[in-house]
Design a protein that fits this description.
globular; binds the ligand CNc1nc2c(CC[C@H]3O[C@H](OC)[C@H](OC)[C@@H](OC)[C@@H]3OC)c3nc(N)[nH]c(=O)c3cc2[nH]1; 19% strand; alpha/beta
Amino acid sequence: MSAAFSFALTATDGAARSGVISTPRGEIRTPAFMPVGTAATVKAMMPESVRATGADILLGNTYHLMLRPTAERIARLGGLHRFMNWERPILTDSGGFQVMSLAELRKLTEEGVTFRSHIDGSRHRLTPERSMEIQKLLGSDIVMCFDECPALPADDKRVAESMRLSMRWAARSKEAFGDRPGHALFGIQQGGVTQELRAESAEALRAIGFDGYAIGGLAVGEGQEAMFGVLDYAPGMLPEDKPRYLMGVGKPDDIVGAVARGVDMMDCVLPSRSGRTGQAFTRRGTVNIKNARHANDPRPLDEDCTCPACRNYSRAYLHHVFRAQEIISSMLLTWHNLHYFQEIMGGMRAAIAEGRFAAWQAAFHAGRAEGDI
Ligand SMILES: CNc1nc2c(CC[C@H]3O[C@H](OC)[C@H](OC)[C@@H](OC)[C@@H]3OC)c3nc(N)[nH]c(=O)c3cc2[nH]1
């Protein structure tokens, strides 16, 4: 266990990289997929099951936890790791994105954001300083700067103004974060899909100096082509020796394309949320288990998958428990999806380390069919 936070690149293959982030709570193998545990739980999963899927780190959420049960209560109870029984690394988002997408009656000023809780209508304020305080109370290992992520489409003027506000907030976040050995603060690049604005944001973040750099402002409706267009240049604008984290991504082919372009870390609700809505991701494509065609199918979701759902249950059974709205349906499909996402990450880490990423990527795409398989 390292007392400090550090990142070591172990191999590169084209723009793709593999490495290890060392933290006092354990190592994170990169490229890494981080399951989302918004309200102190990865929905439908026990923490030991999340670990069994291969996850080294999971996510918590400042916005949700500040509203319920409050960061102060979690701190009094020993912090988020103890509270949710996950002793490995935790990354928490800063709350800005969630306020803009979830809260009501939001008011944005230079100071920060005031809003009403979507849970009980109570009034709250988030600023860079308060976001740092909340993430410190939670005890998260990787803290995100408080930023503003503009909804797309937005004109260049709006994107530029929003990015520059986020850069001022990044400086305030760094100031408020202080010096916390073993804990990391990540800056978040903004700038929409405009290369000059992305460059300006990257320079601003470099000048402040962070332990890692996130690519924000994507996966907000721009589509895969536009996102990849930004990823063709944005990762290279960020310090090469620090982790690069693409926020909110994505589908399996988004993840592979992002790693191919130099991304080290990603998070997305997709595998867990889809697990609850009956969508299973497999190496041959997607299974929508609610479709009648699966009602009599004795085969597993994926013959080559070693997860508990695929080892022990048929599509017919999964179809049945989904239709019957049984809790085990969410448990099994979420476990399968998280297991499969981690299998993609493990395959890419090995392929990059062995210099065969292009072949791995070609095989990944060759095996996939569109539509319900
Ligand atoms: C989907 N496209 C997507 N998600 C972006 C998130 C949020 C990630 C967040 O997305 C959910 O919150 C809504 C997750 O909870 C459900 C959070 O996990 C705890 C996760 O936190 C990292 C962004 N967060 C910040 N701070 N800044 C961003 O620019 C940004 C961009 C995103 N694009």
